[in-house]
Specification:
TIM Barrel; 305 residues; 11 helices; alpha/beta; globular; eight-stranded mixed sheet
């Protein structure tokens, strides 16, 4: 089954303001990329109008070729040593208080790009010590060392999207593994029991309600505290077709269910993406979770089990 005509609730009409034009100049001037552009995000105009953007590090070519994703696949270049500083400069010029950093998947790198994530977090902290930083990372091919490298750089939010239900992985994410993604969260939780962990998935790929509920349960068990749910939209005719368009009312029901099950922050709606209103979600999660977290020393690599 394939659905092609978008319902009214997926039609976005927003004018461009000065903030949008500012970012349109700033990002290429600093030689940077955003997932807003690379992944054809439907919220790009809204976010850029509000001077928010999700920076894409480690190049603009992915080593994987997932059947749902608009990010280009192809030959990768070596990580640029000065990219962390350029990202930090852009964030400072934008006047942000909350920064979101993600990357293409880099299976060609020994550490999957984890060191570059750590360097970027450190660069942001040096230039803007009070900045809140969220990172959205790949699965690092299951490397615990890579997860440790990112976790010990102390992002305020560590995100990784499971994207879909386990049954659909061979079709939707053939290079990924559902259990491997859950283990990433479990290992990060072992390192820092108070870290805010975040994940997201798309609806409309052929999943069942029971399967979605199982994913929510699995993510909670692995330590996730923030969840995003959004509608899958087919980027091109060469990508997977949309199985169905999920109504706003159903997304509302999933938000209420996930909160009742134990998530501290949930964004659920047709146009929701993993970085959508990230600062607000972080604030809600912190409010529900209580006192500030601290790195659990007993779990730091080299300092005990």
């Amino acid at each position: 089954m394939s659905v092609t005509t978008k319902p009214q609730w997926l039609r976005v009409r927003l004018g461009l303001n000065e903030n949008f034009l500012f970012l349109k100049r700033l990002i290429p001037d600093l030689g940077l990329h955003t997932v807003c552009e690379q992944a054809n995000c439907p919220n790009a105009v809204e976010c850029w109008n509000g001077r928010t953007a999700t920076f894409l590090i480690l190049g603009d070519r992915c080593s994987r070729n997932c059947n749902f994703c608009a990010v280009a696949h192809g030959p990768q270049t070596s990580p640029e040593a000065d990219e962390p500083e350029r990202v930090s400069k852009a964030i400072s010029l934008m006047g942000l208080s909350f920064a979101v950093i993600t990357s293409v998947t880099r299976d060609d790198l020994p550490d999957g790009g984890a060191g570059h994530f750590g360097d970027t977090i450190s660069a942001i902290r040096r230039m803007s010590p009070e900045m809140l930083v969220e990172v959205l990372v790949p699965d690092f091919n299951g490397s615990r060392e890579a997860v440790e490298r990112v976790t010990l750089a102390r992002p305020d939010v560590l995100g990784h999207n499971v994207e879909t239900v386990a049954r659909l992985y061979p079709t939707v994410r053939p290079g990924a593994d559902y259990r491997r993604s859950l283990e990433l969260f479990a290992h990060a939780r072992r390192l820092d029991r108070r870290m805010i962990l975040k994940s997201g998935l798309m609806l409309g790929l052929g999943e069942t309600g029971d399967e979605v509920e199982r994913v929510v349960e699995d993510l909670l068990a692995a330590g996730c505290t923030i969840l995003t749910l959004g509608q899958y939209l087919q980027p091109t005719s060469g990508h997977l077709p949309v199985d169905r368009f999920v109504t706003p009312e159903e997304f509302d029901r999933w938000r209420e269910k996930a909160l009742a099950m134990g998530f501290a922050g949930v964004a659920s709606g047709p146009l929701v993406r993993s970085s959508y209103h990230a600062k607000e979600l972080y604030g809600r999660a912190k409010e529900r979770m209580g006192p500030a977290r601290g790195l659990t020393q007993a779990c730091v690599p080299g300092k005990g089990a």
